[in-house]
Amino acid sequence: MNMIRSSRFYLCLFLFTTWFFSAHTTDTIDTSQILSDNRDDTLISSSGVFALGFFSPGSSKNRYVGIWYNNIKDKTVVWIANRDHPLTDRSGTLRLIEPGGRLLLLNATNATIWAANVSRSAHTPLARLLDSGNLVVTDANDEKNIIWESFDYPTDTFLPGMKLGKNLVTGHEVFITSKTNNDEPAMGGITYHCDPSGYPQNVIKEGASFRYKTGPWNGVTFSGSHNLVKNDIFTYGVVISENEVYYHYELINTSLYMRFTVSEDGVGQRWLWSYHTQNWKLYLTIPIDSCDIYQTCGAYGSCNIKTTPACACLSKFQPRDDRGWGNGDFSNGCIRRTPLNCQDGDVFIKYSGIKLPDTERSWYNASMSLQECKVTCLKNCSCTAYAALDISNGEHGCLLWFGELVDIREISPGQTIYIRMAKSELESGGRKREILILTVMIGIVLLGLSLFLFYQKTKKMKPETDRLRHPDETHEELELPMFELSTMSKATDGFSVNNKLGEGGFGPVFKGVLEGQEIAVKRLSRTSLQGVDEFKNEVICIAKLQHRNLVKLLGCCIQGQERMLVYEYMTNKSLDLILFDQVKKTTLDWPRRFNIINGIARGLMYLHHDSRLRVIHRDLKASNILLDSDMIPKISDFGLARTFGGNETGADTSRVVGTYGYMSPEYAVEGMFSVKSDVFSFGVLVLEIISGKRNRGFTLVDHRHNLLGHAWILYKEERSLELVDSCVEYSRYLSQIERSIHVGLLCVQEQTEERPNMSSVVLMLNNDGVLPQAKHPGFFTGRDIIRKETSHSSNTASSVNAMTISLLEAR
Ligand SMILES: *[C@@H]1O[C@H](CO)[C@@H](O)[C@H](O)[C@H]1NC(C)=O
Ligand SMILES: *[C@@H]1O[C@H](CO)[C@@H](O)[C@H](O)[C@H]1NC(C)=O
Ligand SMILES: *[C@@H]1O[C@H](CO)[C@@H](O)[C@H](O)[C@H]1NC(C)=O
Ligand SMILES: *[C@@H]1O[C@H](CO)[C@@H](O)[C@H](O)[C@H]1NC(C)=O
Ligand SMILES: *[C@@H]1O[C@H](CO)[C@@H](O)[C@H](O)[C@H]1NC(C)=O
């Protein structure tokens, strides 16, 4: 008896001392307990999967109350109570208060920093953390009666068991919101919802506008989610009832950890924990490609990622705005080539293999047959299309569209939709029509041909400049200011040497002043064989590319043989002038360098993936990165390679497209170029920005490596930080710098398929996700290089520089 009593005493003493002196862990909080940051208190779920406590994210000193995986060393936070109201010291306490059972987060003066608003009150409130990661407040005597739960107020993470959607009775919507950045969990601008309007579909929003829609739920998956399919890891579904509409997923093996997050870059990511490698693996992401971006091709346009351009009108439709469509602006979409005539009785034409259009303004009935659906649509003149609602078990239910159909893409296997058409579009009528069109077209071609011949004749008689003397004519179609040669000459002081800013791959650049505004005039070398019209088209295309990280084209000048491009002037000139200057480089601290890397990545991502032209730069290098007065990087010379690159093998072979030191192996050796070659150049640039050293011309006494090889060796030996420019104070940014080097190395992998694309690069730079291991970079130990290296081995001074160039000679 005594023994029991004394052991109890010691147990109590033990509990007391642990409570008092060290971290206090508990599995419930009642109104008499306080969870204190000072004591490092944590609340642990019953099987120990999740923990709730105080933490500081990234390099921040701010304190937050959050929930994380208890068994994962690298703290992965899935929920934050006070994301927008951090505590600035460790005085915070979390309490459950009476009456009612509100959870409150208080600071040193007991002022409320954050409160959980309960809908009802509990008699004896109790807070518990469930093994699902849900923090719930219930009545101690009735644990089913939840009065508040964190799953109703998620942060940026959507966990298994959570309901993402809307309670139609209370109007409360559960959605996730991105963080501002890694160190700052405050609400960012990107949200992910299950949107019930019309017919449910999941959406990623950027502020108030839509960035991506999954397409409607079809009983199996979302119509446009090619990567969300039946699998062994989790089940998922959309629940639609009178009271609520939500999307949810559940793990099949609940020992696994899975989470879905939305990043500040507008990407939804599903992560799966790998017990084996002890890190998070990216399971899937949305959006996947540029065809996924909402409304890429406008109304009745269909996006096909495999074609160039990606947008095309659905068959029996034509561009609403031919000129825009021809110039790569698809936003005006398409219209029926034969207008509808509801009174005459319309018909429906079947389109298969597509992502169903946006259902924001749709109507549905789950119990109708497809035939009833058709009749219903036919009866209403504003109904434009119908489709089966559910394809999980044959086709049933009815989904109707009203108004224009947007956000269609080709997808495999895809779904079928029946689009309303004028009766005359039906097969037989169609054929007659086609014959008619053909006849008319032949006529037009003949007429055009004779006009052209006539025009050619007259053209020969007139001098070239005459046709360009009326800039107003060309103005209209250009939507881009055309300047006279005389204006350009005046602005640049007669292209004076004093105003010369530099010499790019395509000609010299002059500084000028036009109507008080500073400009940069690029005088293109007179080597292009392009005609005036071709050139104009290209310039219009370039002018359409607009992004914060691209230099803006202000206008152009075409006169006689002269072609000039007028750009905005960048106060801080080009990156190379600062980065490789021993004095000026000291102004580039790490945050600035990181911003520059990020800006270039975003600009390039736009060129590769988001712009309607899909441009490969081909000559990305430090001297082509201009810096504005705020040191925001702007890529210049984009689109020019596209304009002129085509002539590479033409008359003028003196022009080198691409620059030593930035060229990828496949381009240098085989002349093959793809977006991945730009990625390579980007990788070189990243390593140059971090090290402050040029890849070309890099020599290290005891190494025979170029900058890439040097970076890789350091990386392999986990000494990456030694690469950092000695003038950069980096102690506060260790992980960001290491990550950037890692990403830089991934970009310069020898094999193109091992280099990430630019959207992944942007993601990798700005997330904590696990990166693949980098292998040796291109131009390092590749077979070609070894061969070249040995053949040059007599030349003892052969630095890597010589090696690179010898390789380039192999072209
Ligand atoms: C805050 O509340 C606790 C518990 O109710 C109390 O012990 C403490 O004195 C209060 N602190 C201040 C500054 O009011
Ligand atoms: C709780 O309710 C108050 C008043 O309605 C509101 O200002 C506050 O933002 C709510 N807090 C949370 C965490 O929802
Ligand atoms: C569930 O996953 C865990 C961890 O990977 C594994 O050990 C266990 O065998 C799995 N259980 C089932 C039923 O597959
Ligand atoms: C849905 O269709 C069924 C079968 O045609 C019909 O009985 C029912 O009234 C319809 N519901 C609505 C809301 O129109
Ligand atoms: C056609 O459908 C629209 C949208 O649902 C509705 O507002 C309109 O009243 C309908 N017209 C007829 C004639 O049923």
User: How much strand?
Assistant: 25-35%
**Count of helical stretches:** 17
* Main pleated sheet: 8 strands, mixed
* Percent range of helical residues: 25-40%
**Spans where pLDDT lies below 50 across 5 or more residues:** 1-7, 11-21, 457-478, 644-656, 781-811
Strands of the largest sheet, in order across it?
A: 27-26-34-30-35-32-33-31
CATH class of the largest domain equals Mainly Beta
* Molecular shape: globular
Summarize the structure.
The chain has 811 residues and is α+β, with helices and mostly antiparallel strands. The chain starts with a helix and ends with a helix.
Structure notes:
The protein folds into four domains: 25-199 and 230-280, Bulb-type lectin domain (Agglutinin, subunit A, Orthogonal Prism); 292-426, no CATH class; 433-568, Phosphorylase Kinase, domain 1 (2-Layer Sandwich), CATH 3.30.200.20; 575-790, Transferase(Phosphotransferase) domain 1 (Transferase(Phosphotransferase), domain 1, Orthogonal Bundle). The strands form ten sheets. Strands 27-26-34-30-35-32-33-31 form an eight-stranded mixed beta sheet, with helices on one face. A five-stranded mixed beta sheet has the order 1-4-5-6-7, with no helix packed on it. With 811 residues, the chain is an alpha+beta fold. It has 17 helices and 42 strands. The termini are far apart. Mean pLDDT is 82; it is low at 1-7, 11-21, 457-478, 644-656 and 781-811. Bound molecules: 2-acetamido-2-deoxy-beta-D-glucopyranose (5 copies). One 2-acetamido-2-deoxy-beta-D-glucopyranose is lined by residues 109-110. One 2-acetamido-2-deoxy-beta-D-glucopyranose (NAG) binds next to loops.
